[in-house]
Every structure is written in C-alpha cells, then in structure tokens.
Amino acid sequence: MTTLLPLFLPAAPKAAGFYVRKVPPVIQAQRPLFAFCANVILNVMKRFLCLLFLLATAASAGAYPYAHTEYISKLGPERFLAQKVLNQGTLTYCVFTAPDQKQTSVTQEELALMLQSALREWTYGIALRIEKTGRAEEFADILAILKKPLNLQQLPACDLTRHPRLSVLYPDVPARGQKADISLLFAPDYCAYLNGTVNSAFFYDYNQAPPFICLTDGYANSVRAPEDTAHFPLPAQNDPAANAQDQTLLADAPQQFARIAQGNYTLLEQETFWRLNRLFEYDGHTFFDIIIHEVGHAFGLGDEYKTQRPKRYASIHPGQGLMQNGYRPLSCDETDGLITLLDRFRGKARTFESFCPGRHLIVNGTEYAPTLNLPAQQLGKQLRAAVRNAR
To answer: For 27, 203, 305, 347, which has the most beta carbons within 10 A of its beta carbon?
Structure first.
C-alpha cells in the first residue's frame, strides 16, 4: 500500500519546502501554520486513499456468503423460513404421501419426524454450532432468535389446490387443505412431471402454490432401525467396540430423531444424531439428507455446488456442508449463511469473521476474499479498520 502513495502524493517535507520558497517574506513567518495544515491535509488524504483502495479491491472479489438464493430478490423475504422465524413463534408444515407410495420404505409419520428434525437443526442446531466456537457473546442477538421457543405445528392436510396435476395422477385425493409455511410432497411421479426427471427439489413459487419440497423415493430411511444390525455395513470394520456402539445407535434410531425434533438437545446428542444418519449413507443418500438440504432452500440459501454456481449469489469458494454435498452435516458455511440471512431480513449491518477457518471478513452480508499479499490475520485487521473508519 505504501509503495502506491508516492505515485499520487509527494512527500510532505519536499512539497512544503518547494512552495514556501515562493511566498513573500511576510508569509514566511506563518510557515509553521502552513506546514501543520499541509501535514493534516496530507494525512487525511493518505487515510482516505488507503480506505478506498482496501474497500475497492476487496469489493471486486466480494460475494454473498453461502449463496443467498436469487429468489429472495424476486419474491421478497416473506416466502422464506428465515423471515418467518424472525416474526413467528410457530412454523406450520404438512406432509402429503401419494397413494402409490403408502407401502414404501418410509411412512408419512417418519417423513414428518425428519422434517421436524431438519427445521430444528436449521435453528437450534445452528445455535449450538455458534456456541461451540465460543462466540456466543458476539452473536447474542442471533442466538436469541435461534433458541427462542419455536412451535412446530403439523397441519392435517396440505393445500393442493395449486397442484392440478396431482388431481390427474391421484383423482381420489382431496385437494382442499391448509396452507403451510412449508409442505413436503412425497410423490415421485409428480416430481418427475415437475422436473422432467425423477429428482427431489424445492419449489419457491410454482403456480402460486405455497413453498414445497417434492420428494422422490429410493433413499435410505435413517429413522427406522434396521431389522438386523449384525449385518449392517459399519465404517469401523476393525474396531469391534466401535461397531458395537454403532449397532446400539442404529437400534435407537427412532428415539434419536425424536430427541432432535423436540429441540433443546446437547452438542453431544447433535453429533451422535449426525453419526447415525451417516451410518445409513453406505449406499447413497438418506431421506433426511434430501429433506434438510431442501429445507436450506426454504430458509433462503441456494446450492453451493462446485459447478453451475450462480455468479452473483455464490460464495467465493464452494461450501463445505450439506448445501454443497448432501453427505455432509451442517457446517461453518451454513452458519455464515443463516446469520447473514437473518441480518438481511431485519436490515442489520454486521461485520464478522467467517466461521470457516481460512476465510476472511463478512461485511454486511458480503464475503471478502484476500486481495493483498498479507497474512489472513493482518488482512482481517486492515479490513476491520477500514470498515470502522468508514462509519
């Protein structure tokens, strides 16, 4: 930075000496005052140029942390769960299971339990991650939002009036129901109709329907304990003690999900819960993997895949957690993302260090990459100082 300044500003002593020799003698008596004023102006200009350089170069590499979805700008915050968590003490949800899926490997009750657990993890679970890093005081306002009592209310039937194709596929299903904050439709044929392929997806504003997840089949059910845990594939093949613990965990699967769905769980219970889900991923994703990823969209976050990432709304680097890779739990990236979503929806300015090691500052919802050849800690201090001086 200092090597750039001489290109624009001469050094203060040379500038003062050059001009003083050209003024009349009566003015020379006021030379100390001129020198003082010149130094003040020069210092102000230097600080101003430093600030402009830091902010301009950093802004050129800025991006939203962890991909705020572009649908926020299109639809407004009121359709997203992050806004509803701010304003409501209750989140409503519903689960629809297509008639031809009644005898599959997952029940409507199990899907409801997974959806409840996903909603808890995106709120209470993120709060636990913040506290784990020792930053509870820094984010006391966020913790107050995420840990407040949140009632999850299941509605008896989903409103399907904006899904006319469902009436064609399943004519005996009544369309009338209640509009929920988020709906889960387990209907593979309908998902294929909407997507053109048999994929699960989240829909923000399809045919003016309330936001919904369209869920297909073919995933593992991590709520239901395996019938025979003795032959269940386990990761610790050469560790009998670890295998015995995992078999006990598998047998306790329904209770593990019920514990998370109720909220107020511990960090150890959270880690155990994610280990349980991981055990079922030996042959692909679980239903819960898909549901909690799609719930991330419902809160207002976009995908963070390594390819096809929207330029404006993607973070600087692909993420580390489940919005980038469905086999992973919630991570530091989702923590950054949810904090900035909540701040964005309530109009709060905030500058903080990313929760991801090796990342840098997030300033008012925008992530800044390193732009100078400086150690990360030194760069963070300079950017913080620049933002502080700009206020």
So the answer is: 203
